[in-house]
Automatic annotation (TrEMBL):
Protein name listed in UniProt: Glutathione transferase
GO biological process: glutathione metabolic process; L-phenylalanine catabolic process
Segments passing through the bilayer: none
Ranges in coiled-coil conformation: none
Organism, as annotated: Lactuca virosa
Length: 204
């Protein structure tokens, strides 16, 4: 994607920011897989950034950066980007890291949607909903990656796919208690064990 298209996903704010070498600011949430994939990219690229953990979509400081109240949101000088995919594209253009693949499992188990399911159907349905859609995605992902996987998801180097898959695996296992058997998901289990041993992944 060219820089002109990237800039269509960016907006600038004039107050409180100046051009220079100050560290980037990342508005994040510890349990957000979207935020974690961005933190992974920043760590892997060795970039300095200040991580501001947000616990509410109504946080005043976050709303100044992203009126939608969603994380992640990245500030780099006068550039503000408030979508994880757009952030990764921006970082890839400015600080290259090889790119390959992205995942579409996350939106169906996003906490906003899961909480909404709990409101309209019942709180006892939240976990089954998330588990159902994660498992469905993982079954397809396991088959797809068999064609490409090496040490990592799409080869023997870390690609963008790994930045998407690692947080999703962690969420599935630790937040949503998905029962992942070795027989059903041998590749994804292997990848998860690999990610857990990497310092850059441990930091997030």
């Amino acid at each position: 994607m060219g820089s002109s298209r990237l800039r269509s996903n960016q907006s600038s704010i004039s107050e409180g920011m100046e051009e220079g070498n100050q560290a980037m600011k990342l508005y994040s949430h510890p349990m957000s897989s979207c935020s974690r994939r961005v933190r992974l990219a920043l760590n892997l690229k060795g970039l300095k950034y200040d991580c501001i953990n947000i616990t509410s979509t109504n946080h005043p400081e976050l709303l100044k950066v992203n009126p939608m109240g969603y994380v992640p949101a990245l500030i780099d000088g006068t550039i503000v980007i408030s979508d994880s995919y757009a952030i990764l594209l921006y970082l890839e253009e400015k600080y290259p890291l090889q790119v390959s693949f992205s995942s579409s499992i996350q939106p169906l188990q996003n906490m906003t949607l899961v909480n909404y399911i709990g409101e309209i159907v019942g709180p006892e349905e939240k976990l089954p909903w998330a588990q159902l859609h994660i498992r469905k995605g993982f079954v397809a992902l396991e088959k797809l990656l068999m064609k490409y996987a090496g040490k990592y998801a799409t080869g023997d180097e870390i690609y963008l796919a790994d930045l998407y898959i690692a947080p999703q695996l962690d969420n599935a296992i630790n937040r949503y208690k998905l029962d992942m058997s070795q027989a059903e998901f041998p590749l994804l289990i292997k990848l998860n064990e690999t990610y857990r041993k990497l310092p850059s992944f441990q930091q997030v």
